[in-house]
Amino acid sequence: MPPAPASARSWEIDAARGLMLLLMTVTHLPTRLTSPLGQPFGYVSAAEGFVLLSAYMAGMVYGRVAWRKSVAEMHHAFWRRALKIYACHAALLLFLFTVIAFIGIRIEQPAVVDLLNFYVKQPFTALAGGLLLLYEPPLLDILPLYVLFMLASPWVMVIAFVWGWRPVMAVSGLVWLLAQFGLSRAVYDAAHAIVPLPVPFNETGAFVMWSWQFLWMLGLWMGATRNDPNAPAFAFPRWSVLLAIALALFLMGWRHLVGQIPFHPDGPYAAFNPWFDKWALGPLRMLNLFALVVLAIHYGPRLAARMPRQRWLETLGSASLPVFCAHLVLVLVVLVGLGAKYDRPWVQDIALLAASFGVLYAVARATLWLERHHPEDTTPPAVLAPGQKRPPMYAPAPPKAQAPSSPQTGPGKRRLTLSARR
Predict the structure, then answer these.
(1) What is the pLDDT of residue 376?
(2) Residue spans with biased composition (Basic residues) (predicted)?
(3) Rounded to 5 degrees, what are φ and ψ at 44?
């Protein structure tokens, strides 16, 4: 991908995020298309693509704030976004625990009763745990990850600005590796030994945060580096592109021939299924994802230049948070009203999906209309002369001849300041 353009948004990324939102909606709504369109590109779901693209946008947009304004402004922008995501999560929790719970339990809807199993047993603990991001019921377990990742991102970017992205990605990769061997449970047990947690481990969400942070850091790094006009485009050697094509085609064919579970649970190779695990981002799943990322970066710009722009997908991606929340509301309403049935007539399923897509598009249009009064900063990066390099975001402050030396600000101390050239 080339460096970030002067415009505030990247329509290709918005269109891709819109596609991921539609795929997630199809996956979560109980229809005949749920299984065929779940993980359509191999052993990779829309969730991985959505998280990676969202992290890419966060790194590019909020990194631009640091370059043009200040690191403090970047921190505030991340925190404001985290607060907004948390508010959406809290609203969804209250909707689930009030409207959905009241109707679902009253009519004894199995899909809802199973979803709210812990809440039915311990309602006050579930509510408090949900607001504290400890209890994460199914379907509502991805926004807490976003909140935590958004809170951690500005500190990660500051470290990357000073020391570079290599140590950041090395540590993140090590954490992902440890997560494959039970880091999440070990951290829970250690915390529980210090402060007894009222929420059981199996109710803390299906997504393993220590694994998914690597995907977020990868996208954050890719997006943040696009703000430097001198940054080279992502390029891969020919052999890696050919290998990515072979892997992507093989795994996609395997998924559609065998199913979403690579090996039969009772077969001799069932022990390899965790290598494709979605919740912990198993190693072979990551390999599949990397192959698709290589192909998207290599062929994406040429494909986007030749294909007509899908502005309806861009609209969905531009309002990704409200659309994501709306899709969860739709799924919960369908579950409480129709249950988790996958054998309805095709006409009903098509009508349900068409109506759902219409609602999501209306939510996106309404959101963008409301946000016109608060446009994002679209100031383009400073134009550099040919051959001129932008100074690092953090650089030693120039010494002041008039100022006396001191232990805090003397010439022997390195002081980090934001470069005046933005």
Answers:
(1) 53
(2) 412-422
(3) -140, 130
With vertex at residue 148, the alpha carbon angle to CA 143 and CA 152, rounded to the nearest 5 degrees, is: 145
User: Is residue 275 scored above 60 in pLDDT?
Assistant: yes
Measured distance CA(64)–CA(344) in Å, rounded: 48
User: What is the value of pTM for the model shown?
Assistant: 0.85
Those residues whose C-beta lies under 8 Å from the C-beta of residue 321, and which sit 6 or more positions away, are 84, 85, 88
Distance CA 350, CA 327 (A): 16
Task: Specify whether the CB–CB gap between 402 and 349 falls below 8 A.
Answer: no
Dist. CA 233–CA 223, nearest whole Å: 12
Q: Can you read off the two tokens belonging to residue 210?
A: 């220590």
Residue found by looking up tokens 């704030």 in the block:
65
Question: Mean pLDDT throughout 15-29?
Answer: 95
Please compute the mean of the pLDDT values over residues 52-80 and round it to a whole number.
Answer: 93
Query: Tokens in use for 82?
Result: 């985290």
- Is residue 296 pLDDT above 90, yes or no? yes
Q: How confident is the model at residue 9 (pLDDT cuts 50, 70, 90)?
A: low
Identify whether the C-beta of residue 59 lies closer than 8 Å to the C-beta of residue 224.
yes
